[in-house]
Amino acid sequence: MTTEGGYTPSSDSVGREGVQNFGRGRNAAPGAKGGRHGRRRRGEQPMVPDAEFTSYYGRPVLKAAPWTADIPAYFFTGGLAGGAALLGAGADLTDRPALRRASRLGSIGALLASFGLLVHDLGRPSRFVNMLRVAKPTSPMSVGTWILSAFSLPAGIAAAAELRGLLPSRLAWVGRTLAALDRPAGLAAAAVGPAVMSYTAVLVSDTATPSWHEGYREMPFLFTGSAALAAGGLAILAVPTSESAPARYFALGGAALELAAEHRMESSMGIAAEPLHEGKAGAFMKAAKTLTVAGALGTLFAGRSRRIAAVSGASLLASSFCTRFGIFHAGQQSARDPKYTVVLQRERLSGADPKPAPAGQG
Amino acid sequence: MSDSGNKLYGRQNSTTGVAESDGVAEAAGWRGDSPRMGFFTDTSVCIGCKACEVACKEWNGVPEDGLNLLGSSYDNTGALGASTWRHVAFIEQPRRLSSQEAGYEQLPTGPSGSPAVNLLAGEAITGDRSQLGTATGSVDVEAPDGAPLAETRGEARSEFRWLMESDVCKHCTHAACLDVCPTGSLFRTEFGTVVVQDDVCNGCGYCVPACPFGVIDRREGGKAVKNNGLAQKCTLCYDRLQDGMTPACAQACPTESIQFGDIDELRRRAQERQRTLHDAGVAEARLYLDNPNDGIGGGGAMFLLLDEPEAYGLPPDPVVTTRDLPDMWKKAGLAALTAIAGALTAFAGGRR
């Protein structure tokens, strides 16, 4: 007879190399699925050894966002719209009509696609207007709604000004109005555009989803870089090489920013970086990196050949698309695996981040 | 404990002195209409009857969400979700509950039907054996394949305990779902609870990944299902509270495992219950979300658990995601400025 009973008050300790005394067997019900059984797929190399942790029948602790491909697609189109507005204004100020026109029209096209995607993803699309009931700084989606609203008017006017030549002669006064608003609208759109490029990073990071939240310090730079290279890519693809030099520099800067931010993010987010290399997310991220590097290299020579320019621009656009889907799926994968929730929080409790008072130790 | 000026995190103190321990409803603009109400779920007396699940579904008109056999003990519900606002977890563990004597000491091991077990059972029965209507001598029980059962797979008796826990929305002091809701559909009630307004929610789904407990979800069931496409979760029976009634789950709980009341009173009771259990030798009894200094500012629902939170599918150290939001906005601002600087440089460098 033991007087103390079979239970030893837990002295679990967690390190990068895993959780000691935290065997799957300890809490596994007979015959039930354990926390990490058969999780790793397709013989991928683990970045850190598999951590042992406890879970409830291997079920996720968190809920993955109920979002479909609409949302990562919007991250792409939104970033493109914001970045293109910047290029459009720059082209306007430096007298590059082809670059200005392609950027402004690209921007409004991407923006319209964004609205479509965002409304389509709602559980009740008919209630999309409820987004305008409140303005809440604690809700990145609310802030984003207002940013997009503020962006859409000048971006729309700037794009309309590009097309004013198509107006019939009896609407000449509209054309004159648009001509007067042309540059101010373009500049206003360019002022809001950078916010459109970066806020979506806050939108994903401000969640409990491990692979989104843990990367919050670098995500805005990653997203902004991705948006810049997409906008640059569109211009490189659509504009004669004689006018596209600033777009090429902009794209190269974006590529550098994206690659640097991604590298730094991965090294700062602990095991939450793993999903970026696994499954769908891994495939998208790998493709994105390849396309970024290929597109950037091509961009270096895009001034010499229209064909190289077209291929480089398309690569950059595709890269941005893949990055958004990669980040999206990494987050979803991290939410669906209890490992990322439990092990990260155990690590925090064991002293890496002393800030929060531990729950469950009352 | 609260960060400098970060009201999205840390202890929520009363500013007007109306509430005794925290000013969560006050902070939302209410003026002392009610003390903060919540749940204390004492899992040490939960018997896994699921009356709470049923009462919740019945009262709130929550639709059916799958009739599945999950193979996880007696839990065929799985997890909280859009159409599961109370969820009873069942955990079978091969160890004893603290110093509980399961009655196995010095008993022979092996399946029933083995001579040693039969002998013991026979001896244990006193009084008139003819009344029993069953022969208690050596019964020749056979396994399906014809081998005497006593000779098959003799299995030693093992220590065993069964943990049951009724999970629910935590009605956090710092509720991420409420913080990130872009329509104002989620709101803080006068009872300090967090409730979705079905007629406002547009189903954006942002609250779903924001919740650190995986509680709230978007209901997906087709047009025929009530509130399809909207975020749904426990309302702490807001309608019942407004009429001074107890929430359906607590009302239905036959063992008072689910206790409803004033948060301060519940916190006191939880601590007392933990002391009682510790004194009785149940060293593993621990409180969860009772601490106003924790990552969510304390729960409006707190729990007494008999194992680590993650064994029940609960996060061991939940932190409201908006704690880091001010920092995120700063980083996003910096990134936006980087884009402007990049564009200026690009056009300066691209001069013809």
Structure write-up:
The complex is a heterodimer of chains A (about 350) and B (about 350). Chain A is mostly helical and about 350 residues long. Chain A has 11 helices and 2 strands, in the order ββααααααααααα. In chain A, strand 1 and strand 2 (about 20) form a beta hairpin. Residues about 1-45 and about 355-360 of chain A have low confidence and may be disordered. The longest helix of chain A has about 35 residues, at about 170-205. A two-stranded antiparallel ribbon of chain A has the order 1-2. Chain B is of the alpha+beta class. Chain B is built from 9 helices and 10 strands. Chain B has helices spanning about 25, 50-60, 115-125, 175-180, 205-210, 240, 250, 265-280, 325-350, and strands at about 35-40, 85-95, 160-170, 185-190, 195, 215-220, 230, 260, 285-290, 300-305. Chain B has a 4-stranded mixed beta sheet with strand order 8-1-10-9. Chain B has a two-stranded antiparallel ribbon with strand order 2-3. Chain B has a two-stranded antiparallel sheet with strand order 4-5. In chain B, strand 4 (about 185-190) and strand 5 (about 195) form a beta hairpin. The longest helix of chain B is centred in the last third of the chain and has 25 residues, at about 325-350. Residues about 135-140 and about 150-155 of chain B have low confidence and may be disordered. Chains A and B meet through helix 2, helix 4, helix 5, helix 7 and helix 8 of A and strand 2, helix 4, helix 5, strand 6 and helix 8 of B.
